[in-house]
């Protein structure tokens, strides 16, 4: 979890960045990848928008939590253990996602596209194979019913009410959803483009993005462990939340930019 700024503007900026980073979670990427592939094979017109639809469903639950916690904050404050337990859950999931996605990149056969690997999607089984826009949004909503997402949303909302009630809680929830919508929507568009061209360019780009996602997952988990185990490091990071959030997004942006650059330079494989 995060020590949130006490300045409203800084808090809004941080929550938006956290929403963008949340959209790059490997679980989101893997599920959007599967939904996009499934619906593109069916010829569905909305296939390229699966990322945005998933994010809207996910965001609806976040906004609901923000409204409920914001309304009840005068009588209820999240207990202190929620922050610590939420941090532990996030670290465990990020470590697992980082390891399995890095392994997927390293183990991929030559010429094979690397698809993101998720954990939550496996629990949903056939529910994650939605074939309609409403169904895709429903999958996103189900993904929000996890302790890390629920506790993070509640913490944002409870913090926002210190600035003026449920309206501010909804503003923060909306900024988080907007950041997530940007990255999930971009991911759905990116996957649709990779599917459309199963050549060496797509292979290289998928490996670069897979490595970037794995690296960010491990980086964020490492920062969380360092803050948890080292009081000195935790004290040093106070007031630097925006800088850390920007750095994490910069790593992803560099990975995406590198993938595009390599895609332009790499020529499709030729066969004699």
UniProtKB/TrEMBL annotation:
Please give an example of a GO cellular component term from this record. Answer: plasma membrane
Query: What are the alphabetically sorted keywords of the record?
Result: Membrane, Nickel, Transmembrane, Transmembrane helix, Transport
Q: Which GO terms describe its molecular function?
A: nickel cation transmembrane transporter activity
Output the superkingdom of the source species: Bacteria
Key word Transport present: yes
Kindly list the residue ranges recorded as spanning the membrane: 45-68, 88-109, 130-150, 170-192, 204-230, 242-263
Membrane topology of the entry: Multi-pass membrane protein
A Pfam family this chain is assigned to: NicO
User: Localized where?
Assistant: Cell membrane; Endomembrane system
UniProt lists the family membership as follows: Belongs to the NiCoT transporter (TC 2.A.52) family.
PANTHER family xrefs: HIGH-AFFINITY NICKEL TRANSPORT PROTEIN NIC1
What protein name applies here?
Answer: Nickel/cobalt efflux system
């Amino acid at each position: 979890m995060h020590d949130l700024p006490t300045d409203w503007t800084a808090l809004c900026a941080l929550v938006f960045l956290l929403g963008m980073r949340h959209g790059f979670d490997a679980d989101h990427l893997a599920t959007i990848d599967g939904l996009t592939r499934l619906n593109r094979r069916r010829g569905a017109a909305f296939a390229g928008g699966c990322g945005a639809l998933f994010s809207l469903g996910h965001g609806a639950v976040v906004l609901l939590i923000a409204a409920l916690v914001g309304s009840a904050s005068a009588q209820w404050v999240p207990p202190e253990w929620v922050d610590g337990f939420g941090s532990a859950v996030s670290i465990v999931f990020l470590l697992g996602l980082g390891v399995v996605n890095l392994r997927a990149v390293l183990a991929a056969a030559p010429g094979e596209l690397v698809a993101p690997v998720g954990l939550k999607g496996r629990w949903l089984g056939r529910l994650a194979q939605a074939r309609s826009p409403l169904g895709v949004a429903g999958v996103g909503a189900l993904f929000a019913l996890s302790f890390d997402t629920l506790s993070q949303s509640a913490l944002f909302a409870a913090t926002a009410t210190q600035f003026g009630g449920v309206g501010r809680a909804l503003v923060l929830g909306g900024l988080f959803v907007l950041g997530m919508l940007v990255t999930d929507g971009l991911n759905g568009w990116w996957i649709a483009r990779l599917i459309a061209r199963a050549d060496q360019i797509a292979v290289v780009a998928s490996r670069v993005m897979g490595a970037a996602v794995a690296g960010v997952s491990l980086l964020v988990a490492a920062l969380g462990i360092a803050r948890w185990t080292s009081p000195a490091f935790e004290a040093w990071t106070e007031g630097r939340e925006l800088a850390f959030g920007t750095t994490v997004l910069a790593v992803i942006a560099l990975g995406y930019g590198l993938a595009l650059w390599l895609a332009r330079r790499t020529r499709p494989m030729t066969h004699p």
